[in-house]
């Protein structure tokens, strides 16, 4: 059976790897972008050191994972022998206050929490801390008691119901959720609170103890991409580095069209963003239009640079993730800005120890031009009610007309979600191979 996969991110590669291990599958992956791997995007950085120029790979997209909530990724990395290293998920906030001061704090320790010593006696700051503890306690109990399915509230409604303070919202909660999902926090306020609590609880974000150890790929995420591609090719899979201009379907086959011609396949897996899939489908059904068109995407700019002035002015507050804002009001309408301190996230050369290496997502202050080494655009799904409904209805179109859909957009938007969706599609196609007359199985 000939299978085309459109998109070579983790979803497409994971699906291709699973299918390529089957004796009766011939897999071809199409990728029109400038690299294989999607959000796994390692950039070579060269810096001057006392011993001369030193180069090393720096990740600008996918960075961290853990054994608890990324079981499929852990298994895959073990299978293809990917070397991993310990990472960090510390978090800081730097945000102006209405009186003109800048509030800075980090959750790394008591010392960094009160890095600005005046906050020890600040009623508003202590109110935030008290509400963080209260929020974590309430959410942990709801998750531990398995009562989340009883809650039919949005994030905004939940915050209002429990009367969390404005300081809690503006100085902690909104920066945190915006940083996690890389989108304006106003969009997260419409997110179902049950889904958010479940995610935060599983990832150890709302409890002090029993937090997972975060990990990263030694040498950058491109190392796993290289190994995964090698395994796919060793199993007979192939890559076509061209943009797919359209996908047309009839009763018996799927035609993949590029600028260089048309190739026919038995099945196609759309392992790309849902809007990209809809753009290339030549004759989408009403349900495909509705489901794929319901998921919106947020464009985000990632800048790799070495301008340490974008980090908190209090060095005690430097963390792996550093949320920054230039305004004290209307945070809900502001693009999220996070300055990722790569030195705390990835193993880097020892000669770079005194040189902060930063990836800024939507920088609110432009890094000095001479410090910029890469400027990249990413798009992240927006998980509003329409997107969640699209996820729930995906089974209505999955496998019909020999067309399958996978991607991180089908879950929480993270690497594990992308891999899971790709592997489930591969399992469903394998079931079709075993029983070719069966109705397509929902993935």
UniProtKB/TrEMBL annotation:
It holds the Pfam family Amino_oxidase. Residues 10-291 form the Amine oxidase domain. It comes from the Bacteria. GO terms for molecular function: oxidoreductase activity. This is NAD/FAD-binding protein. It comes from Polynucleobacter cosmopolitanus.
